[in-house]
Amino acid sequence: MHGWKGQIIRVNLTDKVITKEPLNYEYAKQYIGCRGLGTRMWIDECDPNVDPLSSDNKLIFMTGALTGTLAVCSGRYQVVCKGPLTGTIAASNSGGYFGPELKYAGYDGIIVEGKSKNPVYLWVNDDEIELRDAGHLWGRDSYESTDMILGETNKKARINCIGPAGENQVLIAAIMNDYARATARTGVGAVMGSKNLKAIAVRGTGGVDIADPEGFRKTMEKVNKILRTNESTGTEGGLHIYGSNVTYSFLDEAGVLPIRNFRDTGTDINADALAGEAQTEKWLVRTKGCNACPIRCGRITRSEGEFQTYGEGPELETIWSFGSNCGHDNMAAVMAAGRLCNLLGIDTISMGATIACAMELYENGYITKEQTDMDISFGNVQSMVELIKRTAYKQGFGRDLSEGSYRMAEKYGHPELSMTVKKQELSAYDPRGLQAMGLNYAVSNRGACHVRGFMPALEIYGLPEVVDRFATEGKAKHTIDFHNNSAAVDASGTCLFVTFGISVEELAMEMTAVTGVDYSVEDFVKAGERIWNLERLINLKIGFTKDDDILPKRMLEEPVIDGPSKGYVNRLSEMLDEYYTLRRWDEKGVPTQALLDELGLNNIKNL
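Given the sequence above, the corresponding structure tokens read:
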């Protein structure tokens, strides 16, 4: 094979049996890799109604056809399972170097099934694969665990592992790789912890075969030229200079930066103190990139004083969730919170948003200081950082936080204060001033997610065209296009940031040159459509319905109170039915038989 390695590792933790299996080539061509291929393999082997934290839920680590090649930003891999936070099909994405290393060792993915009686980690050293005892690692943070495993295996190995949050099956737990990179959303770290799998270490000394080296070289010359000169991705571009946090100022200027659990969007936070410009000027040590990445949006930062930190991050979502959403502009506290989440293995979006929800519950008197054991008013940064620790270890009020904001708010009688879709927390974009973003959140297959369809590219940056962000007309079609394209990009093993500069046309050219399969633009996008509809079918089988394609009540009924988006709510009802129609779903949001026939989604096992 070219691009794909053609081999999958299967690890049965219950029986301690490791086998190698051939990759299903037809699946690979149709679903490309990562999110797509992993999801198709998962549904072939799992009952959609499986308990996410039971031994029957399989955990699939999957790379893409472009992962590990010299395709720009080709460091992505995804973890697929049923997510314990949402109950949906989950596919959580991460960059860095773990995915490429797995390809260099000779494998496209790893299927983990069953449950070990005792903590273990998996060591993949090219052809040699073994399970090792991890009892001495259990309870240790992700950084210390990584260092110890490197000492026991190979200093050049790449590690992904869980921290105490995953071990304790916190529903917002992440899997960390390369220290500060995270497959974070939907609680995949809790699934890994439920299996007593502490880590996977990989060392590979091979490479990735390219079907058409000359065609690939020419394509990459074109792609690199575009990206080097692009105002977002180039060496003088916003992502390189300011990281993903370049977005912070734009969100504030548009009046869509959520403040205090989305209650005070458009009001009084000093966004300049948290924006990318200030981060670069005051806190940045150097930039960092993933495999084959010229953009280098990663930040190595340092802070002194009460919240002394040094390390990678934080990026936009972390800065928002622990900053303005928690009611303050103390960047040092944000940096400390982000690093602590990396150490303990927690999704920073859900953690910060859950704390913000708790702060509003507290200020409204729905929970008391006796219950929280501390003042958790908005802006109390000391309490914010302490709550992260208590969440990871399920200590005191941290046990409530460990369930995510929806379950916590529901317990205290006010689920409407949880800013979630399908129990997953919204990210840093208030959909009241971004109509298409609201639609994207509502229909996202893994719960609220900004990268399933990054609609601010359209509604704020004008990519690929300038549209009225307050209008609903035409937004369904745009959202579908973004969903299909993003699914295909995810599957390829490429970072979504490349789409700020290049189109699916160049990505289809890369796929053709690497794999030898003739991917037209239509073929590439059709793969994304296939993936999106497969995820939809799985969720329908689980029991999700049109009623779950909804936004929090605040987004629909409470207008933004000040700023450029003042007076607006999200008008989801004006877009949802059109989305279904253009998707070729029926009025209940179920894909039609004709669509299933066209996409080859008939007669799938377990559906």
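The first strand starts at residue 7 and ends at 12. Try to locate this feature in the token string yourself.
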